[in-house]
Amino acid sequence: MGRKCQLVMGPAGSGKSTYCATLMAHLEAARRPAKLLNLDPAAEHFEYDCTADVRDLITLADVADELGYGPNGALVYCMEYLAENLDWLDDAMGCDANPDADEYWIVDCPGQIELYTHFPIMRTIIAHLHRSAAFTICGVYCMEAAFVTDPFKFFSGCLSAMSAMVQLEIPHVNVLTKMDLIKDQIDPARLERYLWPDASLMDEWTEGEGKWASSKWKGLNMAVTQLIDSYSMVSFIPLDITDEESIGALLLQIDHAVQYGEDLEPEEPKDEFDMEDGGGDEY
Ligand SMILES: Nc1nc2c(ncn2[C@@H]2O[C@H](COP(=O)(O)OP(=O)(O)OP(=O)(O)O)[C@@H](O)[C@H]2O)c(=O)[nH]1
């Protein structure tokens, strides 16, 4: 089996930590041991004990105090510090002590989506985990189910999920979290359409409602949603944490994605784009 891991990503408040705690409890009940790694240096408390915690290396509060950085700058500093001290991660996860262990890890990541959409830090961590302890890694991207009530929020959420997928290049599952809050307000057939979003959904939502500031915006937004649609790039799995069947069904899909990742070799990020070098052609 080897080491497997879910990298749980998504915007602040999207339900990552709750998802991690729910999954840990579910796996424990299923007698499938799992370990939790907290990668959020700003985390305050957990409903589940962490096996490893980046706050033992560095905390956002310390960086903010000592260097006077704001929350985003301090977070990026912490993650870059981690990327420069990956031997700490190996140690905390027991990779050196037992390189061939069969382990399942859930990794709770910070809520700053720029870490997944354009900074290279997460890719560096992914490539390192794969290289140092042969981790097979699946990305799990959380988005709140309430977004389905607003087409603009919903499709911008789809774009963030897609950016993470394209940037990280690992098997990827998108999860519609907090389903318990909307499940009684949405028709199941209608929900199915949000799980496989297509451009007609955006059109239908906004047609005749006067929501477009101008036809140019409509053209641009429709082109973007059609791109998602044409390549079937984004789909979601609903998660209702109050329903064991829903948790089990999601886990099954993630297990398939992890299996798919077994043959993949995550790569280190390429060097920064250098304008003077004209190195952009490689991208
Ligand atoms: N009803 C309901 N509430 C949820 C669910 N998941 C999360 N919440 C609530 O949403 C809020 C944010 O959840 P978290 O799990 O802390 O979200 P997070 O993505 O880890 O947030 P950050 O750590 O800030 O990035 C909390 O008040 C949770 O109790 C869910 O499935 N159902």
Note the topology.
Elements: E1 3-9, H1 16-29, E2 35-38, E3 52-53, H2 60-67, H3 71-84, H4 86-92, E4 103-108, H5 114-117, H6 121-133, E5 136-144, H7 151-168, E6 172-177, H8 188-195, H9 199-206, H10 215-230, E7 237-238, H11 244-261
Parallel strand pairs: 1-4, 1-5, 2-3, 2-4, 5-6, 6-7
This protein binds guanosine-5'-triphosphate (GTP).
Guanosine-5'-triphosphate is lined by residues 10, 12-18, 40, 111, 177-178, 180-181, 241.
GO molecular function: GTP binding; GTPase activity
Keywords: GTP-binding, Hydrolase, Nucleotide-binding
Subunit structure: Binds to RNA polymerase II (RNAPII).
Question: What does this 3D model show about the protein?
Answer:
The protein is an alpha/beta fold. It folds into two domains: 3-196 and 234-268, P-loop containing nucleotide triphosphate hydrolases (Rossmann fold, 3-Layer(aba) Sandwich); 198-232, no CATH class. Helix content is 45%, strand content 13%. The chain contains eleven helices and seven strands. It has a seven-stranded parallel beta sheet, sandwiched between helices. It starts with a strand and ends in a 22-residue tail after the last helix. Bound molecules: guanosine-5'-triphosphate. The site of guanosine-5'-triphosphate (GTP) has 15 residues, from helix 1.
Brief account:
The protein is built from eleven helices and seven strands. By secondary structure, it is α/β, with parallel strands linked by helices. It folds into two domains: 3-196 and 234-268, Rossmann fold, CATH 3.40.50.300; 198-232, no CATH class.
